[in-house]
Amino acid sequence: MGEKIQTEDYKNREPIIVADNVTMIFNIASERFNSLKEYFIALMRHELRFKEFRALKNISFNVKRGEAFGLVGTNGSGKSTMLKIIAGVLEPSDGTCTVRGTIAPLIELGAGFDPELTARENIYLNGALLGYRKEFIDEHFDDIVDFAELRDFMDMPLKNYSSGMVARIAFAIATITEPDVLIVDETLSVGDFLFQRKCEKRINELIENDNVTVLLVSHSIDLVERMCDRVAWIEKGDLKMLGPCTEVCEAYKHYRK
Amino acid sequence: MEPERTADKATAISRKTISGKDAWYPEGQRDGFILRQLVTKDFKLKYRRSVLGVAWSVLNPLMMMIIMAAVFTRLMGRADDSIPNFPLYIIIGNTAFALMSDSTSRGLMSIIEASSLLKKVKINRWVFPVQKVLFSVVNYVFSLVAVIAVMIFFQFAPSLYALYVIPGVFMLAVFCIGLSLLLSCAAVFFRDVIHLWSVFLTAWTYLTPMFYSIKILPEWLQSLERFNPMYLYITYLRDALLMRQAPSIELTLGCAGFAVAMLAIGYLVFRRHESKFILFI
Hints:
Strand order of the largest sheet of chain A: 5-6-7-3-8-9
CATH superfamily of chain A: P-loop containing nucleotide triphosphate hydrolases
Oligomer: heterodimer
Distance between the termini of chain A: 29 Å
Helix content of chain B: 55-70%
Shape of chain B: globular
Strand content of chain B: under 5%
CATH topology of chain A: Rossmann fold
Largest sheet of chain B: none
CATH class of chain A: Alpha Beta
CATH architecture of chain A: 3-Layer(aba) Sandwich
Strand content of chain A: 15-25%
Number of helices of chain A: 9
Largest interface: A-B, 57 and 45 residues
Structural class of chain A: alpha/beta
Number of strands of chain B: 0
Order of helices and strands of chain A: HEHEEHEEHHHEHEHEEH
Order of helices and strands of chain B: HHHHHHHHHHHH
């Protein structure tokens, strides 16, 4: 995998994700107010001063088209915050993060799926939320079902599915076509080993076609090592290391707090 | 799933890659399909596992009307001779008010309920409160069947002025969208709004002449009803369906004014704060 990023072709590729000096500051104090009463009491007492918490500090990196990019870091280090900023659901306090093209995240149970609806209905709901055209889902419905291997269960309410089965559907929908950026996170880890292997293979296919950028966030360092070309290691909000997969993973594995 | 089959298929997983060229709606055109899917979802969920299903949207207002007419006809019905048909008077008011109270109490929770989705996928956030209002409008259309049933029962012939229902419901829906945007945003930051709103709705129910005539109110309260948007919308719909006359210019301007003002307030507040939602849900 490591060789890929040495080539001339790679250096000339267009960057798909550009994080430029991304800083995220949370106001810890202000998030405590969940009721009007508390808020006004604090306002009266002039206690609305905020304690700043810097979840991310001046993070910059580029991810190019067709690259498999990993994000690693210990719990609470800022990985999820970075992911949310890339997905476009959280605005950074400072700096910019631009993504060119379509983003396909894996949606977990309870988000874009409704347990009372059947799998068939959920596929349409989920597809709509990802921004797919209706005609596109109509056309490729069978491909999605086949990949998820759930043909016999299509008209069963999703609440009767195991979490692994839901993860299959989520993965099948997100990878039915080539998004510009595929975000793979822990949602996948609930699938059984056979399906995980299948997903890995599919992700590899997407990467090899050089059109899809894969963003992998996982606690499984093995998975990151197997799949990624480059890795960013975020620790306590700082970009601790950025580089070829093997180097960063090696350093991360020997990290002691 | 038997393991044999899974393993069998796992060998043949390679699949042709489908071009992504035509897969996505361009940014800005997605919302229509999302709204449609979400309204369909809510509609299916509402009637799943119920024997009568969608008939409940008709039966519910009908039953409410029968009870209210039985209780209030003697008490209120004769207080105002200008009301041609008291049961019809009740059901038109009730269904319109239900459209507002249903859509706003659903809209109120819409952002909080969509939290896990909003943390992961970039979707226009206004879709959620607006969808709840659209869902309530669909329900309202079914409850109009109940209104028609009452007309047939009393052999009450509507006039062409009944078509004013369309602009009437449209203005009411716009008003509800504005209100839902405002409430859904407020509920994210202060959960008190959820409790407060149900109290507010109850008070609003009694303050709006739905099962009584405005004429029984003390004079000062009568003049204040001009500032009760729900009174205006209900009067507008009653003009169309019950009084068989065109709503007056003042009334139309009042209805439109409240709709536009509420939408503007709701939209501006929502736009100003929506980027912070994710920190509070």
